[in-house]
Amino acid sequence: MSSCLRLYTPGGLLAKQILLKHQRHSSITPAQIYGRSTFNHSLSSSVPFRAGTPLVQRSFSHSSKSFTSASTEHLKPSSTKSGSLDYAAIEKKWLNRWKEAKEAAAANIAANSPTGTTSDSTAASKNDREKFYILSMFPYPSGVLHMGHVRVYAICDSLARARRLMGYDASVINPMGWDAFGLPAENAAIERSIHPNEWTIRNIAIMKTQMEKILADFDWDRELRTCSPEYYHWTQYLFLKLHEAGLAYQKEAVVNWDPIDETVLANEQVDSEGKSWRSGALVEKRRLRQWFFKITEYAEDLLQDLDRLEHWPDRVKQMQRNWIGKSTGAEFDFGVHTPGAPPIQVFTSRPDTLYGVQFLAVSTEHPILNHVPTTHQSQLEAFKEAQKKGTTSNTDQTPEGVHTGLFVDHPLIPDTKIPVYAVNYVVSDYGTGAVMGVPGHDERDYAFAKFLGMDIKYVVTPDSGNEDEAKKSAGALTARGVLMGNCGEFSNMTSDDAAKAIVDKASALGFGREKTSYRIRDWLLSRQRYWGAPIPMIHCGGCGPVPVPEKDLPVILPTDVSFTGRGGSPLKQIKEWVECSCPRCGGAAQRDTDTMDTFVDSSWYFFRYLDPHNKSMAFSYDKATTGMPVDIYIGGVEHAILHLLYSRFLSKFAWKSGLYGKGAEIEDKEGKAPGRGEPFKVLLTQGMVQGRTFKDPVTGAFLRPSEVDLSDPQNPIQKSTGERPAESYEKMSKSKFNGVDPEDMIAIHGADATRLHVLYKAPPSEELEWDELSIVGMQRFLAKVWRVVEHAASFESQGDSSQSEFKPSTGVMNKDERELWRQLNITVKELTTSFQSTYAFNTSIAFLIKLTNQLSTFVPPAAAAPNQSNNVISRGLYRHTTEELVKMLSPLAPAFGEECWEALGPTSKSKKTVPSVFSQSWPKCYEEAIKDEKVVCGVQVNGKSRFSIEFDVSELPQDKVAQEQFLRGLAYQHERSDKWLKDAQGQPKPVKKMIVVKGGKVVSFVL
Ligand SMILES: [Zn+2]
């Protein structure tokens, strides 16, 4: 601990310590202050506080009043000047202490274990308490921790620590790991000639140190890396399970192709201009044989079960609903005129508009295009070539298309030839890759018809009007209504009735049927890159694709590769790896050279955390059944769709295939778990951290910090112009020069204050405008807490506070004591709710500040004013309130909390040492203390209401005479009593009779 003794004021460390000891022990004796010897445990000599701050030379006023037998001393209110704290020293001290404690605990377990080997806290549940599983989205090991990470880890670390205080102890699961596969490592290999594995491991080491600096206490014995064979062994195993269940399959697909990185991109990796997010290349479309997970098989489950997720943000659920995109309607077959061509199937959610079909629109990949007459082929090829640019999902571009030379018949209107167009706005994988063009009632079809110069046909009108009426309104009429007279036997039916009748007729005639369609597409997981889990399949000329037998897993990613950055996966170049024998027939075969999308790795890692060292299974049935679902999942809203949907899919698959059990459905004391294989009970999506951003108001160019004079932070000046720059808060980024390095913040302000600041500035789900200037507010708060602790340390604890048994009798409290007691309980209630359900840490901190301020008013002045008898509180209550304050603050500011707790000293006489604050119990809230105590009492004079007085319910004496006296006293203090109850000289008029009714809510004077 000697390294933690650094005092804030430079020079003379030893001398100052001696001086302090001298002050404590000789300038005033403990017995003089405390009446008993309790001092030896307070403010142990290693406390890093500012030297010279007088610790005990306070004047205390003694009062005979007491509410417990243990204490008779009272404090008088005051404030003291600030003392400064060396936060860095405090943090270093406690990081070392925590480390030592963990090592000691591990050694202890090893010593007591028969085999002397296990230090695995995951091995067995050491207590019978319920588990509480906190999960933060694991990071990609980039080697750089940013403020967004600080925010999410501050939230989850605070939650974990609070839960431990609440009695979950070792059953809190708060793991951390690394989403370690992915493109950046491979690009680093190409650019810097460092192997992806080496690069990744180096970055992990850096980030672990950074996480330690923000005092995040993760379960490192559960740590995992998705790039290690011990992990991807089981990713491959799950792939095989999905394959076995028919949920992993191969098909040719149109993909987004990055011609520079030579890889397939997800639509999300393509920007609005159709360029690759990484290389910036114009993305092309290509057809490739790809692996898919059949997530569409679960579309209905994934949709329906959103309703079970009570504790997910509504907007996230809505985004998932939209992504799944269920629509019910019909499928119609349109016969093609060309001999030998199959009918074109279309899906529509509006079968009632069948009479309005003016063309069919098919995707440029639709198989019917193989039947295009030669007269139209070159035109079609040119169009397809032009469409290669752009992504597979740019459905919001201007509709364009070419006639294919093909025609279909309208199934219900005789002799109607309908042209077929190949268009850019129909996606090949959506539905059937063909839609019926109804320009009168669909906006995209309308836009395309206008592009073609077509007359628009209307068949449905909101009223039962005619087509001419409808034509008056420009654009598509998308609302349902009544079918017009041009719809044969269905005319004048409502849209709903007509839809049903038309589908019935289509079924009877055999050209259509009812159909439900989903927008969600199967999950394309093949990547033609190196740094990912190899797909465990072998391609045999005779047998086709054959799964690698489970016993041969993992398929190890070869390490000896060369990175050129070109030519697809480097795995293809490694002949000795690719060439293998077929597991089925033994013949010559080749390994699949694709690797898996990193979203596969991250869609099941929360299972592996529960059983991270299992060598024979992905996770044990029992551990997953007990540990799932995750109680709270914290991460960025940018993962609201894909990652969460994929995780739900994998988790449901694991549940349905019996990899874990019904435990996921049991109801716990904090509400029902969603069940049905849903992995996450509560989802907390944290908002972005934004930085203060300066721009040249004329050019709009971002300004570097060096280009802005911030000597007056409220009035920034652009140095080059002397004018005020444009200012905003924007997502932190290098190009905007508005980034903040968390390590700098911690070095300057301390991790505790930085954490508090991040949590205090905004509720977790909202955007956080990073403002370094206001961290000082948090430091002031901590300094104030420290002064309160200094004072409380000198008073003996009331009972064993680890049991939270302290409960004063409110009946004998004075007004200030009651108010403090009330405020303490309000704060306990607020913090408890916040840590358990609302996660409103910003308000929680505000409550802690308020309680601290209230305690501060009772710090005795150097020279106590002798007559301030009203503001005197018991030392016992002061000490107790301080202890509870420190316990509640500790999860948020852990090192500072420990320091305060140690400074307070043992909580009972019988104890000599101070255990960690995190081994204490969470404060208990006494509901009766926070009931609304104010009584508004109406004062009646001779039967008429004149004014009202206010008092605390506890102040009202029980005795009838005392009650009247009390109320009379209050009434005479009221200014309006001059008029109604007093004579011209200001003397009370004689009272004939006084009646107190409704427990003091009305008092009636009869004069
Ligand atoms: Zn074979």
Automatic annotation (TrEMBL):
Keywords: Aminoacyl-tRNA synthetase, ATP-binding, Ligase, Nucleotide-binding, Protein biosynthesis. It comes from the Eukaryota. InterPro entries: aa-tRNA-synth_I_CS, aa-tRNA-synth_Ia, Leu-tRNA-ligase, Leu_tRNA-synth_edit, M/V/L/I-tRNA-synth_anticd-bd, Methionyl/Leucyl_tRNA_Synth, Rossmann-like_a/b/a_fold, tRNAsynth_Ia_anticodon-bd. One of its GO terms (biological process) is leucyl-tRNA aminoacylation. CDD domains: LeuRS_core (cd00812). Residues 133-272 form the Methionyl/Leucyl tRNA synthetase domain. Belongs to the class-I aminoacyl-tRNA synthetase family. Residues 321-506 form the Leucyl-tRNA synthetase editing domain. It comes from Lunasporangiospora selenospora. Residues 520-638, 730-771 form the Aminoacyl-tRNA synthetase class Ia domain. This is leucine--tRNA ligase. Pfam families: Anticodon_1, tRNA-synt_1, tRNA-synt_1_2, tRNA-synt_1g.
